[in-house]
Write a structure and sequence with these properties.
With 381 residues, the chain is of the alpha/beta class. Among the domains are: 106 residues, Rossmann fold (3-Layer(aba) Sandwich); 155 residues, no CATH class. The chain is 45% helix and 17% strand. It contains 15 helices and ten strands. Strands 5, 6, 7, 8, 9 and 10 form a six-stranded antiparallel sheet that branches. A hairpin with a 2-residue loop joins strand 9 and strand 10. The N and C termini lie far apart (57 Å).
Length: 381
């Protein structure tokens, strides 16, 4: 065995995988994450950090363009897998491992790949004529999609430049436009949030959903109580991971996997009880999430959204944990977080205005937006 092959086999022990979730395919994405954990692999947080690109589900035309761009950004050696079904997960991960070990294939890929990533325009063109291509960049532990413009003098090499704009004191201050999503760790699948920043503060935001016309009118499949509880655990994990508490996030993820795997509900209930105790005891977490994205019952009633979302980010976390415990102890209880996708995305600019990027991501995670749960979504802005 040569040195290259030996190093490749050693590196295979700790492969980094960037997952792309097609809206509505969160269970498939969770299965891929379970497969990674069983192999000792880990999740990548950006294309530059990834060895493998795993696409969970069949993307629509707009998301497919974004996936192609991300694939161009992965450094070699690299592998791409498209997972269309739960039964394909193990085989797909084995294919990825084989591709990474195939030195001849990797050399051929390095010779043939473009010198710089291509820049698809379809998502931006369909949303707004003066918005340019999607460009991904990394910040705050996730992948932030920078905003290009049709006039390339304003975006040399596709890198967005700041523009002038008035701040709240009436003075001119640079305004930078960037996008969050649609592929971002612990982020609603398919959501794109175009932000205008002055310094590190969001002064305006505009949400829309990729391939929204592709999902429009699709029937919503009935969700079993255990799957609904697992989905809530998935949302809890997102928020705790973004807050930087990896151990608690791991507990939420394990509970999700227990529920999806058909284990005894008592085990999941015990895990949730433990999680509820440690979350309530954490002063640092409470301090970190307090007063972020506060919503009153009046605000929510006016927007026809569930009152369960009232309070700040910390309140919503506790409410979600309590709701998940209730779903397990009383299987016939209703999901109090069920909401219309259009209404909740219309509320996002109001919630994130005045926050920095990290705080905005925490607030959005606390809402538990399920982009595959409603056929009433539409393009916004």
């Amino acid at each position: 065995m040569g040195m290259t092959e030996a190093l490749s086999r050693y590196a295979l022990r700790r492969v980094h995988v960037l997952t792309v979730e097609v809206p509505g395919e969160w269970v498939l994405r969770a299965a891929v994450e379970q497969g990674l954990a069983h192999r000792g692999w880990c999740a990548a947080v950006s294309p530059a950090d990834a060895d493998v690109l795993a696409v969970c589900g069949v993307p629509g035309a707009q998301l497919a363009d974004v996936v192609d761009l991300i694939w161009d950004q992965l450094p070699g050696p690299r592998a791409r897998i498209d997972v269309g079904d739960m039964h394909e997960v193990d085989a797909a991960l084995r294919r990825a491992a084989a591709a990474l070990l195939d030195c001849g294939r990797q050399r051929e890929d390095a010779r043939n790949r473009a010198a710089s990533p291509t820049k698809p325009n379809k998502v931006a063109d369909q949303h707004e004529a003066d918005h340019g291509a999607m460009h991904h960049d990394m910040d705050h532990g996730g992948m932030h999609d920078h905003m290009g413009h049709g006039d390339m003098d304003m975006a040399p090499a596709g890198i967005a430049l700041a523009e002038g704009g008035e701040d709240r004191d009436g003075l001119e201050m640079d305004v930078l436009h960037l996008r969050l999503g649609p592929v971002l760790a612990h982020w609603p699948a398919g959501l794109v949030l175009r932000c205008s920043l002055q310094g590190d503060v969001i002064v305006d935001a505009e949400p829309w959903w990729v391939d929204s016309e592709h999902r429009h009118g699709c029937a919503v499949n009935p969700v079993q109580d255990r799957e609904c509880a697992a989905r809530q655990c998935d949302h809890i994990e997102d928020l705790l991971a973004l807050a930087g508490w990896s151990r608690a996030a791991g507990t939420a993820r394990q509970t999700r996997d227990l529920l999806l795997g058909g284990s005894d509900a008592g085990q999941a209930q015990a895990q949730l009880d433990k999680l509820d105790r440690v979350v309530r005891r954490s002063r640092l977490l409470r301090w970190s999430l307090r007063n972020l994205g506060p919503l009153t019952a009046e605000d929510l009633n006016r927007r026809q959204l569930p009152v369960a979302l009232s309070g700040d980010t910390y309140d919503r976390l506790l409410t979600r944990i309590g709701q998940t415990r209730e779903l397990l102890s009383e299987p016939l209880s209703a999901n109090i977080f069920r909401s219309d996708l259009t209404r909740i995305s219309d509320m996002l600019p109001h919630l994130v205005r005045g926050l920095d990027i990290a705080s905005a991501r925490l607030v959005i995670a606390s809402l538990g937006i399920d982009s595959g749960a409603s056929g009433e979504s539409g393009a916004h802005g």
